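Weekly structure sync, notes
Attendees: PL, DS, HV (note-taker this week)

Item 1: Adenylosuccinate lyase
DS walked through the input record. Source organism listed as Streptomyces yanii. Sequence as pasted into the shared doc:
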Amino acid sequence: MDEEFRSLTDRLADEAGESAAYRRLLATDDDEELARVLVERERPLWAREIAAFRLGCGGDRRAFEALVLLLNHRDPERCVSAAHALVRLGDPRTPRAAAALATNTLRTAYALHPVRLLTALRAPESVPALISTLERLLGPDEPHWRVALACVEGLGQLGDAQARPVLEAALPHPRLGGAAEEAISRLPTG
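Item 1 (cont.): predicted structure, written out as C-alpha cells:
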C-alpha cells in the first residue's frame, strides 16, 4: 500500500464509518465492481473517491471523469488524492483538463492542485496554463497568492524560457519574489 493510498483510507475511514461497504471497496480486486461504484446512483462521495483512486492508480481510464471532478473539489485532501491518481492514470486528456481548471477565473480558489498537477505532468499545456494563471494573479491585493506561488515554483521546475517575462513581473511581489528569483535561475540563458 503506497503512502497516498494509506492517507486516503485513513481520511475516509471516519467519513465511511468503517462500514462493510468501505472495507469491501478497499479489499476488492474487481475493477468492474469499482467501476460500477462510479456510475451507480446514491453512492456516497467517499465510495466514489475510493473507486476512482484505485481505478486511476491502476491505469483504468473509466476513473478519469470522477478524478477530474475530485481535482476541482473544495476539500484540498480530495484534490491531492485525485492529482496523485491522475498522474498514475496517464490519460492523455489529463493535461487539458488540469489546464482548464487552473485557468478558470471563477475557480481560482481551487486551482492550487491543478497547477501542481500541470507541473508534475510536464505536458505541452503546462507552461502556457501556468503563465496565464500567474499573469492574472500578480495584482497587489491578490488573495490567491498560494496559487501564484505554485505557478512560480512550477514554472521554475519546468524551466521553459517562455516563462521569463511573467517570472520577472513576479519579482517585486513580497510573497513571490524569492521563488521567482529561484525559478529564473533555473531557466535556460540566451
